[in-house]
Specification:
It contains 5 helices and 7 strands; from the N terminus they run αβαβαβββαβαβ. By secondary structure, the protein is of the alpha/beta class. Strand 6, helix 5 and strand 7 form a beta-alpha-beta unit. The protein is globular.
Length: about 170
């Protein structure tokens, strides 16, 4: 555990000292986003555009995360055990890509449909049965939606064959 904490500290310090626009805390055995990170990164949080938290054991992500990293463009949360996102995710004005693959979502996180800049949503390998197709179809920037390996109900499968302005990746039976 001490090694994991030291690893997180090293990565955070590198982001601050080198003025990086990205923060990679993937595979750090995190169960949540460390509260202390907010303090360490407060002077550079506006510069951070990309955060990778893939391959951890995160069950939740706080609203403070989204209110702190307001300039975020890309967020990679794949391979955690998330079941939902806080409402504040809908206020991300610059986000273009979110990777939520291989988590534990059973309901599509509809607040994502409020992000006008969002181009890519990856929800492969979750437990989602229904998609908010009407809301998705009104997203101005959406280009790509991956819902492979989700137990989508048959009415969604039928509706997904209608023409949309974005690509939908599905698992075909």
């Amino acid at each position: 555990m001490a090694e994991a904490v030291a690893n997180v500290a090293r990565r955070i310090n590198a982001t601050v000292e080198e003025g990086k626009d990205s923060l990679d805390l993937s595979s750090c055995q995190l169960i949540s986003f460390p509260e202390g990170v907010f303090k360490v990164l407060r002077t550079v949080s506006e510069n951070i555009r990309i955060i990778t938290l893939a391959g951890n054991q995160m069950k939740a992500i706080s609203s403070k995360f989204f209110s702190t990293f307001t300039q975020l463009r890309e967020l990679d949360l794949q391979g955690n055990i998330l079941t939902k996102l806080p409402d504040q995710v809908g206020e991300m004005e610059h986000m273009t890509s979110i990777n939520l693959a291989n988590n534990s979502f059973s309901i599509f996180p509809e607040k994502l449909t409020e992000i006008a800049t969002l181009e890519r949503i990856d929800l492969e390998g979750n437990n989602i049965t229904e998609l908010p197709l009407e809301k998705l179809s009104t997203m101005p920037a959406l280009k790509w939606l991956n819902v492979k390996s989700n137990p989508l109900n048959s009415s969604n499968h039928f509706a997904l064959h209608s023409p949309y302005k974005f690509d939908i990746l599905l698992t075909t039976d």
